[in-house]
Amino acid sequence: MHIFNSIAEAKTNWQSVEWIVLNVLDGSSYFSYFNCCLFGENMLSIHRSEASIKNTHIQGSELPELTARQYMCSTKHITFKPVYVGLVEYGMPCDPCITVKPVIYPIIKEHGTAVCAKIAFNHLNPGHLIEWFEYQKLMYVDTIVVMLQYLNDEALKVLTFYARQGFLKILQYPAVLPGQTDRGFESTNWHSEQSPHDEQVAVYTCQTYLQGYEFVAVIDFDEFIVHDKFMSYMTMLKSELLPAYPDAAAFTLNVSFFITDWGVSGVEPLLTSKYIQRTLPRFERYKNLYIPDRIQNINTHEIQPKEGYKRILLRTHNVVLHHYRKCPRGDYKWKYCMRITPSIDKKMYQLMPKLLSHVIDVKARIGIS
Q1: I need a surface site. Which of 26, 87, 156, 236 has the fewest CB within 10 A?
Q2: How do residues 171-193 score in pLDDT, each as one tens digit?
Q3: Residues pairing with 117 in the sheet
Q4: What are 205-216's pLDDT values in tens digits?
Q5: Do the beta carbons of residue 268 and residue 281 sit within 8 Å?
Q6: Is the peptide bond before 93 cis (omega within 30 degrees of 0)?
Q7: GO CC: one term (predicted)?
Q8: Helix (H, G, I), strand (E, B), or coil: what is residue 279?
Q9: Where are the beta strands (DSSP E) in the chain?
Q10: Enclosing domain of residue 92
Q11: Residues 130 and 270 in one domain
């Protein structure tokens, strides 16, 4: 059992919190039972409660070594503020020496917009990263959450800059992945059974950390949600999407792929103006915007709404996910990637002057070229 983090129910004071969620990779058998051990300051006060399973990630028919799972610990009858929490097998004592995680008490932003960027790892282009963050600001995003594994120095400077601003919340992801399976997040080291569960822990973390926001998007650092009138995410939600779909729990976006292997077709230096050749919007590798109060479970691509709500597939709407990437390798659907006749899309030129100005300013403040 590897516990990544523990996050409390989003409430204005700890006395109102009724549960704490632990986001884990679980190697125990399906019939194992656990108890939560909740500790106060300095590990002096101890409270024990049953650990119940909130969500379990299911990916294909093959079982991974470690399963992404959420355990829920009840705090209804506790008399002190939980500061640390751990798990023990049923019947074992709550010894202060067990492995525990500090309890995170997430903020509540009832009319806030947030983005889950999942995991930062390996190497990211610092200029493209700044462009992505500044675009999110132009969309009036309030908070971005990412789990940090390991990163090149200049990209780490970018994340640190936005974290110091309070715009980015960084949570840690272990550099050495737990378990015996040899794998990583790079495409060359992706393990088809285990890696989706490793990634899902980050999505579960976002789901619990951002529960107090009104609207959340799950996208990667090479993806941009683009409305044809450049409406902010919240404006789009309130003025277009919810009036049309009042019982929506989430909105799934079509994707236009801007393939960098096709070469520079636009104006440098921004990623979004440099590559303007794209595919037509398609229902592939799609991503979601969701309303936390209305969903039960999420992963990178799918949504399980709560009863009474629906997932809406925006197949013809005027908002599209722009995905900037190389030709997907090893995917039969993309076998003839270099033979595709692309469309030209100059929409992002409209934002280029403002976005470029912001990028240049941030680069100077960080001290990168």
Answers
A1: 156
A2: 999 999 999 999 999 988 999 99
A3: none
A4: 999 999 999 999
A5: no
A6: no
A7: membrane
A8: coil
A9: 2-8, 19-26, 34-39, 46-56, 67-74, 84-89, 101-104, 109-122, 143-151, 168-172, 213-218, 223-227, 248-259, 277-278, 282-290, 295-298, 303-305, 310-314, 319-325, 343-344
A10: 2-104
A11: yes
